Amino acid sequence: MTTVTEKNTGTVLHLSALTQYFIPLGNYFFPILIWAFRKDKSQFVDYTGKQALNFQLSMLLYSLLLAVIAIPTLLYSIFSNVTFHQFEQGDFQLEQLTAGNITGIATVALTAVFLFIALKIAEFFLIIYAAVKTSNGEQYRFPMSISFLK
């Protein structure tokens, strides 16, 4: 049986990950602080903290993977038709970036960008959903979460 304090702590722990939109790395810093101070006092808070941190680390891993795919392929597809001499002389013109000049590889990069946006939207709603479940006293496990902390 979880107490109201444990439920509230778990809910705040999940919602503290939303500080990433205001404070850089807040989605790691604040959950770690709350979890570190309360993990020994409650098994429910310990489980909730591990799930929240595992989810945030998984989202970081997925985001980095998408960035590794998107950034180089997008740069390659944009600058593949521009010679170094044109770029050095300032002869680079936006007319060279027509749909015929940008290769199909740009589709891969744009797909990765759209997946990143979808990932961030899903992350936002999953955090809210986890906070609601936790406030009801349920132990929530995030989908797509890798268990870094067991």
Automatic annotation (TrEMBL):
The chain crosses the membrane at residues 20-38, 59-79, 99-132. It is a multi-pass membrane protein. Pfam families: MamF_MmsF. Keywords: Membrane, Transmembrane, Transmembrane helix. It is found in: Membrane. It comes from the Bacteria. This is Tic20 family protein. It comes from Flavobacterium cauense R2A-7.
